[in-house]
Amino acid sequence: MKLLSSRIAAFLGLVAVLVLNSSSPLLACAACMGDTSGSKQSVAAAWGIAAMVVIMFAMLGTLIGCGFYLRYRAQHPLSDYSELLSDDEDGNDKPKP
Fold first, then answer.
1. Low-confidence ranges of the chain (pLDDT < 50)
2. How far apart are CA 61 and CA 59, in angstroms?
3. CA 15 to CA 27: how far, in whole Å?
């Protein structure tokens, strides 16, 4: 654990040195720096963010649905394979009501 914390401290120190010694200030993109209300770039960015949010909720919903299915399967297990075979071997091909 000591080795891991010393590596993290060294990495953070290196990042701090690089940020403090940069000769030019960090600049934001044109969308962040300028007034882009109503421009094509801001409309496209808004649609992109909305699409990512929809995809994120769809993925999370799928993950939650999979969890509910696994919980249901754990509470209602399938019968053994040998029991299923013995039901078919009695010569009765009619489906059970």
1. none
2. 5
3. 18
